[in-house]
Design goal:
317 residues, alpha/beta, D-Maltodextrin-Binding Protein, domain 2, 2 domains, six-stranded mixed β-sheet, four-stranded mixed β-sheet, 10 helices, Solute-binding_3/MltF_N, signal, Extracellular solute-binding protein family 3
C-alpha cells in the first residue's frame, strides 16, 4: 500500500492526479446522488462506535440522516482501511520513493467515506475533508499490571509526547500500518512482534495486548474510551504520541457541491442539538475530554486553543 510518514507530493503531480480523478469519476457528486436517488456510504466494519458489527453507530446514523436531508435513500457499503480511499476515488493509490500517485482505474464504490476517518496529511493529498466531526488523539495503552507508569502531564502537547515516547524503549509496541495508528506517523519505533499487523482491525489490538502477545498498543481516543469501559481495571493509558487530531468525512476533491451540502447539514444539526445527542448516544464520556468541541456551535467558531490536552483517570498529576 503506502507509507504515510514518507509521503511527499509534488504540486505538479498533484494537479495531474486531480485532473485524472475528474475524468475517471463522472457518476458522482450531488447531482448524480439525487439522480440515482441513493447516497452510498463507505464505512469500515467494525470500528469503535462509528460502525459496529451490527451496522449501527455514529457514522451510520450521521450519514443516514444526511441522506434523508438530501431526500435520497441510504446505502451502506462496507470497506477496509487498506482500500477505503481507493474505493472512494475509483483509482489505485500507489507510493514510490516517497511520492503518492494514482494507478489503475477501479470501480467507485461510494459517495462519502465516513467511519471515524482521521484527517491525516497523506489523506488530505488525496481526498477533500468536510468540516471536523470529531476530535481525537493517539495514545499508548498498556496492561494494568505493567510496571511502567503513566506520564505526569506537562500541560503542553509536545512535552507530554516526549515523556510518553521516553517510556517506550523497552516495550514491544504495535499499531496498524497506513492508518492513524501507524507508529511511523509519530516517530514511534515498533518492535515488530510476530503478528500480521496488516491483517488486524483496531478492535483486535486490545485482546492481543491482554493475551500478552504485545506489551503496548496505539489506540485513538474513541477506541480507548470503549476499551476502558469494556475491560475496567485491566488497562492504563501511558500518554499521547500525537497532538489533537480531527476526524471528518471524506469526499472526492471534485465533488464540491456534495461536500458543501454535508457541511451545511452538519452546521444545522450542531446548532439544533441533534449532533450532540448523536454523540452522547455512542460516546457519552467524550464530553469530559472535549467539552467545547461538541457544543452546539459551528466548528469554524472553535480554535485549537479552545482545547486542553486529553488526560485520562490514572494519568493525571
Amino acid at each position: 500500500m503506502l507509507h504515510p510518514f514518507r509521503v511527499v507530493v509534488l504540486s505538479f503531480l498533484w494537479s495531474t492526479c486531480l485532473l485524472l480523478l475528474s475524468v475517471s469519476a463522472p457518476a458522482s457528486g450531488l447531482e448524480s446522488v439525487r439522480e440515482r436517488g441513493v447516497l452510498r456510504h463507505l464505512g469500515v466494519e467494525e470500528y469503535a462506535n462509528f460502525v459496529t458489527s451490527g451496522r449501527e453507530g455514529l457514522s451510520i446514523e450521521l450519514i443516514r440522516q444526511f441522506a434523508s436531508w438530501l431526500g435520497v435513500e441510504y446505502q451502506f457499503v462496507p470497506t477496509q482501511w487498506s482500500r477505503a480511499v481507493e474505493d472512494l476515488l475509483g483509482r489505485q493509490v500507489l507510493e514510490k520513493n516517497g511520492t503518492l500517485r494514482l494507478g489503475e482505474k477501479r470501480p467507485i464504490s461510494g459517495d462519502v467515506l465516513c467511519s471515524g476517518v482521521t484527517a491525516l496529511e497523506w489523506r488530505k493529498q488525496l481526498v477533500a475533508f468536510s468540516n471536523p466531526t470529531f476530535l481525537t488523539q493517539v495514545l499508548v495503552v498498556v496492561r494494568g499490571d505493567t510496571p511502567v507508569q503513566p506520564i505526569q502531564p506537562t500541560g503542553a502537547a509536545q512535552g507530554d509526547i516526549a515523556r510518553t515516547k521516553g517510556k517506550l524503549h523497552d516495550l514491544e509496541l504495535i499499531g496498524l500500518p497506513d492508518t492513524c495508528l501507524d507508529p511511523e506517523l509519530y516517530g514511534v519505533k515498533s518492535a515488530r512482534p510476530p503478528l500480521k499487523v496488516r491483517d488486524l482491525r483496531p478492535a483486535q489490538l486490545v485482546p492481543r495486548l491482554l493475551d500478552g502477545q504485545v506489551e503496548a498498543v496505539l489506540l485513538d481516543v474513541p477506541s480507548v474510551l470503549m476499551a476502558l469501559s469494556h475491560w475496567p481495571g485491566q488497562l492504563k493509558v501511558l500518554g499521547p504520541v500525537s497532538s489533537l487530531q480531527y476526524m471528518a468525512c471524506a469526499f472526492r476533491p471534485h465533488d464540491i457541491q456534495l461536500r458543501q451540502a454535508f457541511n451545511r447539514f452538519m452546521e444545522k444539526i450542531r446548532w439544533d442539538g441533534t449532533y450532540y445527542r448523536m454523540v452522547e448516544k455512542y460516546y457519552p464520556s467524550i464530553f469530559s475530554y472535549f467539552p467545547h468541541f461538541f457544543a452546539n456551535i459551528s466548528p469554524e467558531k472553535l480554535s485549537n486553543d479552545s482545547f486542553k490536552m486529553l488526560s485520562f483517570p490514572g494519568s493525571r498529576e
